[in-house]
What does this fold into?
Amino acid sequence: MKKIMIILVTSLMSFGLFGLKVTADEQFTLSGKVTSISITDEGGVINVSSKAGRYGKVFLTYNLRRDNPNFGSQGSFTGRGVGIADDGTRNSAPRHGVWKREGNIITFHSLDDVTDGNRNFCISKLNLTEETLEMTFYPF
It folds into this structure.
């Protein structure tokens, strides 16, 4: 019985690995500017603004947490993204993911569920020295 349960759990977990299909031809990017950084005891808050294609002017917030006391240069984050297109259409998305700082670069990996029905896997690189953000969206 124990072997059957292990096989069943392993099989179900392996199906989940193939559920996210990211294709490079559908990706799009944005280049943003950091508008503020606030340091807190738990981590910090970073705000960014940018133009983002179909989403228009976009405002992003990253609420960083240092979850693991053994690794102060990585953790999780939550946040929000809001975009206002030129025609006044507003879309938003909660943001959830993990981050890691290497030198002056913080890399974020997140999943976004946008109010227009799109879901994106996002990889963002924030340069603390230049106060810039480069984000690549991978719709799935």
Summary: The first helix runs from residue 2 to 17. The two ends are 37 Å apart (CA to CA). The helical segments are 2-17.
